[in-house]
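Sample intake — Serine kinase
Collected from: Stagnihabitans tardus
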Amino acid sequence: MPETLHASCVALADRGLLILGRSGAGKSALALNLMALGCDLVADDRTEVTARDGALFARAPDPLKGLVEARGIGLLRAPHREEAQVTLVIDLDQPEPDRLPPLRHITVLGIPLPLVFRPSHDHLNAAILCYLKGSRFA
């Protein structure tokens, strides 16, 4: 049974990023920035997640498929992917205080996933893209 989260999701190749945060935290903005860098939209603002075969999968609820909010511009139609396996979660409500933070995890529907907090520097888009292309070292 899917659970709907207040979250956005984008994917690069076979790796999905679940973007958590309160309203106005920048979920859609981060999704748009990553889409401009080559990621695919999966869902914006509301994301259905399902646990399957030991992994977490994300998709958009039917009425929101292919839509992304651009604050000050409106709802935009965008190419999108039907589903993606979530391999990383970012919580935009949590500022990252550490230069080299510890490995963190979050459990969603019983699935443990790597978790990062919002860094205070301007490299967020590039760092997340690099993480999705590779992984974190230590």
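Post-analysis note: DSSP finds two helices and eleven strands in the chain.
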